[in-house]
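Researcher: Please predict.
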Amino acid sequence: MTQILLMRHAQSANNAQDETLRIPDPGLTELGLRQAQAAADWLGRVKVNYLYCSPFRRSLETMRPIADASSAPVRIVHSIFEQGGCYSGHVSGQRKGEPGLTRTELLAQYPGWSVDETITDAGWWGQDYESLEKARARASAVARWILGQLVPLSGCHCLVIHADFKRLLIDALRQELLQPPIMETVGDLFNVGITRFDIFQRDGKTVYLNSVTHVPAEWIS
């Protein structure tokens, strides 16, 4: 049996302000830092064997205290970024693709973490805004990667990802499983909320959905 934990990143600066003021790759707010530490404290008591995060700064900074609390290896995975990619601008049709952090920057800022070979010194994105259709196809590919490469490893795998992509990935996993887990509507995806799937080869079970019991009530966002 393999445990898959899908966790949304902690509160970012963009989460805390109007869409018109958002920047391409924000870090965490003070609340976000507290949320990330609370998640790390909880995960430190869980035997997590493998850690994965997207190359967005908010995901990386959420992972940092988790990595400090765990002996599990960390891999920065290119394909689990938020829908849309790294971009500036908020008006539909006028969004501009931005490069994101480079390989050299990632290796320097997060020493000891593994970085996907697809991430170069040109940055991890630098493309047009990713359409929802393309993001769905990417989520399907990630679901197949989870089932084909992570599940055979067994153990507990924690992926720090993003709200919109998490919805797509949950849907893709359910479509890929021979016996998908029975679950209610996904509902609100709180910062550092965790969804746990237990997967037995190609059959899945939802253990909890977007749980934030590891975060003080006044910190939930």
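Model: The two ends are 32 Å apart (CA to CA).
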